[in-house]
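## tool: complex_structure
## caller: assistant
## args:
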Amino acid sequence: MQIHTRMTKQKRVIVEELAGMRTHPTANEVYQLVRSRLPKISLATVYRNLEQLSEDGSIRRIDICGSQRRFDPIVEPHHHMRCNICKSVYDLPVQKLEELEGCMGKCGEYTLTGYNLAFCGVCHRCDK
Amino acid sequence: MQIHTRMTKQKRVIVEELAGMRTHPTANEVYQLVRSRLPKISLATVYRNLEQLSEDGSIRRIDICGSQRRFDPIVEPHHHMRCNICKSVYDLPVQKLEELEGCMGKCGEYTLTGYNLAFCGVCHRCDK
DNA sequence: ATAACTGCAAATTATTTGCATGAGC
DNA sequence: GCTCATGCAAATAATTTGCAGTTAT
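## result:
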C-alpha cells in the first residue's frame, strides 16, 4: 500500500464506467467495459485499480459470491442476493436488518468491524 | 451429479477427520490431515468428496471468506467471523439474528432460500 | 524529480477435468 | 457386473507479480 495515490486516466475511466452500475461486475467485466474507451488498458491495471479503490473506500468489494470477486460502486450498507441459477447478483430491498449493526464492536472474544451478508435464491427472470 | 453415491474408504476418512473440527479447514488443509491416514489419496479426491458431501448436506461449504473455500462439519445455522489479520475463521456466539429467518421466502421479485452471513474483525489472538 | 502507475508477460493459487484403473453395491 | 470413485497429470480460471518504460504531482 502506498501513501499517495494518483488519479490516472485509467482509474478515472474505471470509476466512471462503474458509477451507476447495479450488476456488481467482476474485474473482467469492468475490463471489457473500460476497454471500449481505453483499448490499450490491461487487465492487471483494472485489478490494481479496483483493489486500490476498495481499499480507500471509494467502491465496495464483494467477496461473497463464490469464486469470483465482484465490485459495487455503492458503498452505503445494503444487502445482496445471488441467483442460484443465473449467478447474477442483485441488490436486495431488505433494510430491516439494523440488528446487525448492533453486533458491531466487542462480541465475546472478538472485535467485529464489519460483515458481509448475502442471500441466495432464485430471481424473477429464472423463476418460471 | 449422480443418483447413487458410494461410501468409500477415502470419503469415510475425510468425514471422520472433519468431524468436530472448528477451524473451518480449506480443501488443502483437509488433504494434509487425511494424508496422515491415507498417504496415497489425491487432492482431487478430497475436492470431489468435499463437494459431494456439501451437495448432499452432510457438511457445509463456506464461500464467504475471500479466495479460499472452506468447509464446516456443522450444518446447523450459525455465523462466522474471519480475522482480518490472521485470516482464521471462527464460529460466532451470535444467535440473536433470527430476523434473518424471517427474510426467507418471497422478497420483492426474489425468492430467498438461504443466506451467508460472515463478520470480519480482529480475533483475541491478534488483538494486542 | 520522484514516486506511483502502466502494459505486458510470466508466475501463483485454487479448483476442475480427462482418463485408465480400481472398488462399492 | 455395472457404475461410480480414485490417482495422476494436465487444464482452467482468477488473481498477482516482476519489470522496464511512462506519467501525475
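## assistant note: Residues 31 and 46 of chain A are 6 Å apart (CA to CA). Chain A has two domains: 9-72, 79-121. Handing back to user.
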